[in-house]
Amino acid sequence: MVSLPPPRTTELYYGGAWHTAKARESDPVTIERGVSAEGTTAGPSAATQTLDNTAGDLSPRNPASPLHGAIGRNTPWRFTVQAGGPWANLPGTGTNALTTPHHANLALTADIDLRLDVALDSWREEMLLAGRYETVGNHRSWALVILPSGRLQFIWSPDGTLASILNLVSTDPVPAYSGQRLCLRVTLDVNNGTGGKTVSFYTGQQLTGRWQPLGAPVTTAGTTTIFNATAGLQLGSVTGYSAQRMRGRLHRLQLRNGINGPLTVNLNTATATPGATSFPDTTGRVWTIRDTTTLTNRHIRMAGEVPAWPPSRDLSGADRTVTIAPAGIMRRLGAGNRPLDSSLRRFLIGTPPLECWPLTDGKEATGGASLRGSAPALASGRGAQPLWGEGEVADWLEPTVALPLQTNGTLTAVPAATGTANWSVDFLRTGRGQSELIEISDRGRGSAADPRNKWSLYLQAVPNQILLFRDSYAGDTSSTAFLATVANPGIYDDRLHHIRFMTLVSGGTTFWTLFIDGSLASTGSQAITGRPVGRIELLWDQVGSAAADVSFGYLTCWDNTGPGADTVYRAARGFPGEPAGERILRLSGEHGVPVSVGGAVDAQTRLGIQRQERYLDALDTIAKADLGFLFERRDDRALAYRARSTLYNQDPVLVLDFSAGVISEPFRPTDDDKDTENDVAVTREGGATSPRAVLATGRMSVQDPPDGAGRYDEDYTLSLEADHQTAEHAQWRMHMGTHDGLRYTQITLDLGNPRVYAMIDDIYRADVGDLIRLTGLPDDHGPDDVDLIIRGYKEEVSATRWTITFNCRPGAPWEVGVVEDPVLGRVDTDGTTLSGALNATSGTVNILTGTGLHRWIDSATFGSMFPFDVTVGSEVMRVNSCLGTALSQTFFVTRGINGFQKAHPSGTPVRLTHPMRTAL
C-alpha cells in the first residue's frame, strides 16, 4: 500500500532564502490550477493549507514574532511532494553535470541519433546539453547546445581539433515555455547520398514516440565523420567548453548507432535512488553526478503567494494555527479595474523618447502634459485653445486634441532635455483639416556666432501637398530655403497617419528626411550645421468654408538613438499582424510580468489592433484568438502560454487503462450538447464577418434529428489581422464543435491506489495542454480509445487521501494532417460504401466509390503506402492491400483493430480512420 501522506514540504521565502514552515498534517492541502471543469478561462492557481503557529512566528502583525517584518502580504510560498523516481537537477552552477567515462559503446563515428528528455528553466538561454568533448588532447567528438535564440546547435569534429569543428543550427527555435518538459532529437547523416551531410532536429513528448521536425533539415556540401575521441559523455556541462551550464531537469537520454539504429546508451534517471551519487543505465554505463547536480524526486506542485495571514486559536490560546489560501500571481495581477494604456503610450514609456507630449489631456485641461518632465505644451495667448480631449486620431488610442473650426492658433512645446544634433520629431494626425504648419527650431541663439535654424512642414489639404522649408537666422540676416514639395501625401483623410521629420548632421552638412506612415517620403541636405531641438510649434488655420475636422496627438522628440519611423508607426497602429505569443511577451514585458511562450511563431494567430483593456483581459483576448492556453507555471511565480500549435498531434504523457481499475469515482462522462457548434461565424474586431461555417450532413450536422443534431449556431468576435482569417477560424471552431463523442470533463485518480501510484512519474509530469489517453473503456463508451487535453486540475494531499482530478476536453479534434506522414498525411475519399454485406469475420471487403469521386489507391501501384486503417461503421480495419483500379475495389483487411468486430450491411460508409485535417 501507498503510505499517506506522502513526504511533503511547505516553504516560505523571506530573508533571501526558502525556509520550511510547519504544516498541520491532519488537514488537507488542496491545489487548483488552470481552467475549471466547465470554465473557459484559466484563473489564478489557488491552494488551501493550515500552518502550525504554536510558536507564534507566523503572526506578522505581532511585533514579538521572530518573523515580524519578514513575512506579510504576498509572501512567496511553495508546496512540494516527494514521489516516484528521481531526475537529475542541474542548478546551472559550477560544473554541474551527469557523466559516464569513455566506453566502446560511445565510439560512434558515422551516423548518430541523439535523444534527450529535459525540462530547461529557460529555453531562451545558451546551455550545454550533452557532449563528448574534451579540449585537452584534442578529444572533441560532438556536443549539443541550445543557443540564446532557442535554436539547437550540433557541433562535431572529424579529427578532434578545434580548427576542424563543424556546426549546424536548427532553422527554428524550440517551441517550449520555461520549465516545460520536452524531448529533443538530433540526427547526423554523415553521407546523405548526394555528396553532402545533413543534420535534422526534432521535438516530441516521448523518446520513442512521434517526432515533430524542428524546422527544415540542414544540409551542407561534403561528407563527414565524427572523431572517435576517448572523451566520456557529459550531460549539463562539458569541461573546457565555454557554453553555459545546463539549468533545469534531465530525465532521459538515448544514443543510437545510426539513425533509428540500436541503442548504445539508454539513460533513465527514474531508475536511480533519490540522493544517490551514481547509478547504472540499462546498457551498463555507470553515471556519476558532478558538483552541484543532485538526484531528486521533489516535485513543486504549486508556487504562489500568501495574500493574508488570519490568526486562529482554540479557547485556551495554546493551539494556534494560520489557515492560508496561497494564490498564483494572476490574483494580484487581476486586482483593480484600470485598463492598460494604449499600445503607443506603453511603447513610449518602455522606449523613452527625449520628450513626448501625448496631447491626451482631459477636456478641462489648459495645456498638454509631458511624459518626460518638460513644461506642458501651451497654446499661445493670442490664438484659440485647441479642443482638449475632443480629438481622436484612432479609436484604439486615447482621445487627443482637435483643432477647432473657424479659428487660428498656436501650440508650443519646449523640450527640457538638450538632446543631440541628430534628432527626429514625430506626430500623429487624422482628418482632412485645412492648413497646419509645424515649425521645429533648434537651440541656436540666432546670432552671427550661433545661428538658429527652423525647419517647417506646411500641410495643405488643398492642393493636397506638404511643403518643406528651412529658415536660418544669424544676427541681422536671415535666409529661407525651399526644400521640397511632397505631392499627394495621402494624409488628408479620416485614417491615422504618422509623420516624422528627421535630421542627421555630418560635418557642415545636415541631411533631412521626411517619413509618412513609416515610409520614406522625401529627403535632401542643407549646407548648415544642425543643433538639438529647442522648440516645436503647431500653428493652424481652420478659418473658411473648406476647413474640416482634424486631430493631432503624440508630439514626440527623439535623439539619435530613437527607433525607426516604421516601428513607431506600427506601435501607433496597435501592432496589427503581431503573432499571439509575441504580443503576450511584449505586453508582459511592458507590465513587468515574467512570462514564457511555447509554440512556433509562424503557426500562431496574427492578431488585430491592440485595444485598451485590463492586462489579464488583454491576454485572454489573445488566447481566445489563438485558441491556446494561458496559465500559471506550477514551479514558479510566472505565467506561461501554450500556443495552439503545441496542442496538435501530441503523444499522450499519461495512458490510463480503465479496465485496470486506475480511474476513480466520480467517472461520469456526459453525452450532451453543451459544446456543440455546427453553425459558426467569426467577425474580425473592426472588420468583416466570415461566411457561416455549417456542417450540412452527418450525425452532428444542422439537419433535424435523426439525420443530424439540429442547428447550434454561435458567433465569435476575435482580434484578427485580416478579414480572410475569419473563414479559417469559423471552420476550425465548427470542426471543434462537431466532435462526435462523450464529454469526459473530469478524470479522477487516487494516488493512494498502488496501481495508480505506479504511474506517479507520468501523473506528476502531466500539465495544462498535455494529452491523456483512456483505454479499455466499457462497451457503452464506444470501442475506441479516447484522447483528452488537460485544461487544469485539482489535487488534494492529506493523511487519508491523495487524489488528483484532471479537467479535460476532447483531444481527437487536435489530430491534424502532416504532409507525407504515413498515417496523418492521407486525404480521405468521399462517398465510399460497402458494395455488399460483410460478415463478422471475413477479411475480404468489397467497396464502391461514388461516380465522379476519387478511388482508393491500389497496392499494385502504391504498394509502399500500405497498410492503413479505415473505419467501417464503428469497426476499425487495417487495409493490407487493395485490388482494382476502378470505383469498385476490394480491400484485404485485418479486422477489429480497435477491439470491436461485427457484421455490417451493404451501404455502410467506409472512411479513413485518420483522415488529413487541415490545421488552423
Task: Map the helices and strands.
Layout: E1 8-14, E2 17-21, E3 29-34, E4 46-52, E5 75-91, E6 97-100, E7 112-120, E8 127-134, E9 139-146, E10 152-156, E11 166-169, E12 181-189, E13 196-204, E14 212-213, E15 218-221, E16 233-235, E17 247-257, E18 263-268, E19 278-280, E20 286-290, E21 294-306, E22 311-313, E23 320-324, H1 329-333, H2 343-350, E24 355-357, E25 367-368, E26 377-379, E27 387-391, E28 400-402, E29 408-413, E30 423-431, E31 435-442, E32 452-460, E33 465-474, E34 477-487, E35 497-506, E36 509-516, E37 519-526, E38 533-541, E39 550-558, H3 565-572, H4 580-591, E40 595-598, H5 615-626, E41 629-632, E42 639-642, E43 654-657, E44 679-684, E45 693-694, E46 713-718, H6 725-737, E47 746-750, H7 754-757, H8 760-765, E48 771-775, E49 786-797, E50 802-810, E51 832-834, E52 844-849, E53 868-872, E54 875-883, E55 888-894, E56 910-912
Parallel strand pairs: 40-42, 43-48, 44-46
Antiparallel strand pairs: 1-2, 1-5, 3-4, 3-49, 4-23, 5-17, 5-21, 6-16, 6-20, 7-12, 7-17, 8-9, 8-16, 9-10, 10-11, 12-13, 13-14, 13-15, 17-18, 19-20, 22-23, 24-39, 25-26, 26-29, 27-28, 28-39, 29-38, 30-35, 30-39, 31-32, 31-38, 32-33, 33-34, 35-36, 36-37, 41-42, 44-45, 47-50, 48-49, 49-50, ...
